[in-house]
Amino acid sequence: MLARAKEDGAYDALFQRDLLAHLERHERAEAVDVLLAADVLIYVEHLEKVFREAHRVLKRGGWFLFSTELALDTEVTEGRVVRESGRIAHSRGYIEALASEHSLAVLEAETIPLRIVGA
C-alpha cells in the first residue's frame, strides 16, 4: 500500500513504523496536516497516548483519519475488547471520549464491513 501511495505522488512523506513511537519522535508540535491510520488501531489496545500525540503533532484544523473495529458497549471493558482474532475492537463511546479529552472532534463515523470473508 505504501508503494502504491508513493507512486501516486500525493504525499509529502509516508512511514511504516510503530505508530506511537513515530508520533513521540516527532519533535515539532502542530506540524502535520493529516494523520492516516487505516487498519492500524485494531492492533492498539490503549489509544490514550495515540490521541494525545495526534493532537500534539496535528496543525490546527488538521485531520486524524482512522479505522477501528467496532465494539458494542455491551461487550467492552473500559471501551475496548480483544477479539479471538487478536484484533482490538473499540466502542464508539470510547473513541468519542478520547477525542473530546484531546480537543479533537469526531466529524463523521461510519459503520462498514472492513473484511468480506469469502470474496
UniProtKB/TrEMBL annotation:
UniProt xrefs under Pfam families: Methyltransf_11
Record InterPro entries: Methyltransf_11, SAM-dependent_MTases_sf
Alphabetical list of SUPFAM superfamilies matching this protein: S-adenosyl-L-methionine-dependent methyltransferases
Domain of life of the organism encoding this protein: Eukaryota
Ranges for domain Methyltransferase type: 1-66
UniProt-recorded name of the protein: Methyltransferase type 11 domain-containing protein
Organism this protein belongs to: Durusdinium trenchii
Lineage of origin: Eukaryota, Sar, Alveolata, Dinophyceae, Suessiales
